[in-house]
Amino acid sequence: MTDFNFYSPTEFVFGKDRETECGKYVVKYGGSKVLIVYGGGSAVRSGLLDKVKTSLTENGVTFDELSGVKPNPRDDLVYKGIDICKDKGIDFILAVGGGSVIDTSKAIAMGAVYDGDFWDFFSGKTAEKALPVGTVLTIAAAGSEGSGDAVITKIDGMLKRGSGCDAIRPRFSVLDPALTQTLPAYQTACGATDIMAHVFERYFTNTKEVEITDRLCEAVLMTMIKETPRAIADPDNYDARANIMWAGMVAHNNIVGVGREQDWNSHNIEHELSALYDCAHGAGLAVVMPAWMEFVYKHDVMRFCQMATRVFGVKMDFADPDTTAREGIRRFRAFLHSIGMPINFAELRADVKDIPVLLDQISKGAMRNGGFVTLSLDDIGEIYRIAARAEL
Ligand code: NZQ
Ligand code: ZN
After folding, report:
1. Measured between alpha carbons, how far is 200 from 195 in angstroms, rounded to an integer?
2. Which residues surround ligand 2, an ion (CB under 5 A)?
3. What is the model's pLDDT at position 364?
4. What are the tens digits of pLDDT across the range 150-188?
5. What domain range is 278 assigned to?
6. Which residue puts its alpha carbon closest to atom 29 of ligand 1?
7. For ligand 1, atom 8, which residue shows the shortest CA distance?
8. Which of 154, 179, 204 is the last residue of a domain?
9. In the predicted model, what is the mean pLDDT of residues 339-359?
10. Of 124, 158, 179, which marks where a domain is finished?
C-alpha cells in the first residue's frame, strides 16, 4: 500500500425526509443568502424544491434560483450562476439534483470567488477557495455528493473536462433514498453503471498488497449486482434504493481507492462519447469499460481472475487463467445488458466513423499517463473499435 491522506469532510445526512432539514445545515455551514441550483424539472415535479424552500425559509435563509441544468452540464449556465452570485452577494450554493447539478454548483462556487475565468480550473489550475456548497441528492450515480471533483463541458469546442480540489467538497449532503424512487429504470441503470465504474477505476491497479481496499471494492460491486435489479424491478423498494445510494457515495469519496494507484482511462475515453453524442455518462461507460477490460486484461491476468472469481462467481481455471479473466469480463457486460444498458456503439447510437473525431478531441485534453496501463492514442482507438463491435 502507498502513503496517503484521506480527507472527506462532508457531513452526510442520510434517511427518509431528511431534505426537510436542509435549511438547518445551510445555517450550520455559514449560509444566509443561498443560490438554489436545479435541473430540468424533476425536483419541481416531485415537490422536492418546495420542501427545500420551506426549510430554508423556516431557518431564516433567503434564496435565489438557477434552473435548467442539463445532463452533461455546460459552461454557459456556470457563467450565469457566477454572475448571480456576484450581483446578489450569495454566500452558499445549494445543489438540488444529480451529478450535473452538483458539478454546475461546484463550478459556480469556484468562479464566484475568482477574478479570472472559471474555466482556468478545468484547464489545469487548482482552486484554492470556493463558496461553500451543500447538496440534496436525487440520483445515485456520479458520487459528486462526496467528491472534490466537477465535470463541465465547454460549448466552444465541446470539451468535457474535470476539475478537482478540496475547496469544492460539499459541506453537507442530504441523501434521502426515497427521492430516487422517481428515477426511470434507464437512469437507475446508468447510475449503477457509473458507480461500478468508479470502483473498477480504482480496482485495477499495479499497487500490491491492498487487500483492504480490494475487499471494499468487491463489497460495493457485489452490492450493486444484487440491488440494481431489485430497484429496477420495484422502483419503490426503499431498501434497495438506500443501499445503492450509499454505495454511490462510498464508490467515489475515495475510501475504496486510497493507498493504491488508480486508472481513470475509461472515464476519459467515455467523456468524449458523452460530449459528442450527449449520451448519459453511465451508458457511455457501459460501452467503454468492458472494452477497456478486454484490451488491458493481459497486463495482469490474475487481477482480472480475482475480479471474475470473487465478484462474478467464476470458477478459477488455473490451467487457463485467460479464460477465467475473459469470463469475468463477459459476465460484467452481460450484467450491464441485463439492466438495460447499451453494450456497443449501435446501441449507444454512436458511429464508428466518428472514432477519428473522438481521438482528436481526447488528444486536446490531458492524456493520462500511468494508471493500470499507459495508453497511446492508437490504443484508445482500438478500445473504441472493440466497444463499437462488442456483443454478448
Ligand atoms: O434535470 P432533471 O429534470 O432533474 O432530470 C435528471 C436528468 O435528466 C434526472 N433525474 C435526476 N434525479 C431524478 C431524475 N429524474 C427523476 N427522478 C429523480 N429523482 O436524471 C437525469 C440525469 O441527471 P444527471 O445529474 O446528469 O446524472 P448523474 O448524477 O449521472 O450526473 C452525470 C454527470 O456527472 C459527471 C458526468 O460526467 C455527467 O456529466 N460526473 C461527475 C463526477 C464527479 N463530479 O465526481 C464523476 C463522474 O465520474 C462523472 O464524470
Ligand atoms: Zn463516472
Report:
1. 9
2. 194
3. 86
4. 999 999 999 999 999 999 999 999 999 999 999 999 999
5. 185-389
6. 99
7. 71
8. 179
9. 98
10. 179
- What is the C-alpha separation between 306 and 316, in angstroms, rounded? 9
Question: Are both 243 and 292 inside the same structural domain?
Answer: yes
- Which residue in 58, 62, 143, 68 sits closest to 99, CA to CA? 143
**Same domain as 214, residue 97:** no
String of DSSP letters for 120-135: GGGTTPPPS----EEE
Q: Is the pLDDT of residue 369 over 70?
A: no
Give the tens place of pLDDT for each residue, 241-278.
Answer: 999 999 999 999 999 999 999 999 999 999 999 999 99
Same domain, 84 and 215: no
224 contacts 196 by C-beta, under 8 angstroms: yes
The pLDDT of residue 366? 62
Q: Are residues 35 and 83 in the same domain?
A: yes
HSE-CB at 5 with a 13 A cutoff on CA atoms is: 4
List residues near ligand 1 (CB under 6 A). Answer: 39-43, 71-73, 97-101, 103, 138-139, 141-144, 147, 149-151, 179-180, 182-183, 187, 191, 194, 252, 267, 281
Count how many domains the chain has. 2
Least confident of 67-71, 156-160, 196-200, 300-304: 156-160
